[in-house]
Amino acid sequence: MKAMILAAGLGKRMRPLTDNLPKPLLLCAGKPLIVYHIEALVAAGVKDIVINHAYLGEMIEETLRDGSAYGASIQYSAEKEPLNTGAGIANALPLLGGAPFILSNGDVWTDFDYSQLTGLDIDLAHLVMVANPEHNPQGDFSLTEKGFLVADRFSERGIGLTYSGIAVLHPELFSFCPSGPFPLRQPLIDAMATGKVSGRYFKGQWTDVGTPTRLKELERAILGAP
């Protein structure tokens, strides 16, 4: 099974830290954020990894190289300009093949065990959901009792949760996507309408490292500092 890590964002909310460094390479407790994902994937037996990049992407390639230092085999999907999440994934499909693959956002931190996703039988997508953080109090989608996701965040059929940035996607999810940039949310909502997106509620550690303040808070948590 292959995996893709999204690493093409501009990191605007992290400025000035990202003025001269791509967000996935920001250090947290002495380690680049993206390396936490690579190590977790390799630990789960997922060694073939595709990373997309745009902003200062050459620095990502120079740092991670072919991935052998981490026990991985890394390929890169370079974007001249950020294509947004959905189009970025679609652009990388030739490297990912025709089977379902694991997706992870490069700007989150979690202790989620990726081995729970290997070999998972899905329709078009399976999303890992988390409790709504302060910066996203209304959530993204609703998870029903039967384990399916619906686009209505306030659905009486389920509980509103936040998408963690971790998923298993089938390439067919992108069969009818538009040309040009588009968010991953767009094909997901279309697939939810036909009941082809399942999900799970993860209650472990998870942080959307979206601001310098959150980065500092995460580092203190990892180091066990007060």
What this model shows, in words?
This is Nucleotidyltransferase family protein. InterPro entries: GlmU-like, MurU, NTP_transferase_dom, Nucleotide-diphossugar_trans. Residues 2-137 form the Nucleotidyl transferase domain. With 226 residues, the chain is an alpha/beta fold. It has a single domain, classed as Alpha-Beta Complex (Spore Coat Polysaccharide Biosynthesis Protein SpsA, Chain A), CATH 3.90.550.10. It is 23% helix and 27% strand. It is built from five helices and 13 strands. The protein has helices spanning 33-43, 57-64, 84-96, 185-192, 212-223, and strands at 2-6, 27-28, 31-32, 48-53, 73-78, 101-105, 108-110, 125-130, 141-144, 149-150, 158-169, 197-201, 206-208. Strands 1, 4, 5, 6, 8, 9, 10, 11 and 12 form a nine-stranded mixed β-sheet that branches. A hairpin with a 2-residue loop joins β2 and β3.
Known CATH architecture: Alpha-Beta Complex
Looking at this structure, what is the CATH superfamily?
Spore Coat Polysaccharide Biosynthesis Protein SpsA, Chain A
In angstroms, what separates the terminal alpha carbons?
39 Å
What's the overall average pLDDT, rounded?
A: 92
Would you tell me the structural class of the helices and strands?
Answer: alpha/beta
Taken together, the total number of domains comes to 1
Query: Which stretches are low in confidence, meaning pLDDT under 50 for 5 or more residues running?
Result: none
Biggest sheet architecture: 9 strands, mixed
Quaternary form: single chain
CATH topology, what is it called?
Spore Coat Polysaccharide Biosynthesis Protein SpsA, Chain A
How many beta-strand segments?
13
In the CATH scheme, the class would be Alpha Beta
Work out the helix count: 5
Q: How would you spell out the order of helices and strands?
A: EEEHEHEHEEEEEEHEEH
Provide the gyration radius in Å: 17 Å
Report strand %: 25-35%
Instruction: Report helical residue fraction.
Output: 10-25%
Overall shape: it is globular
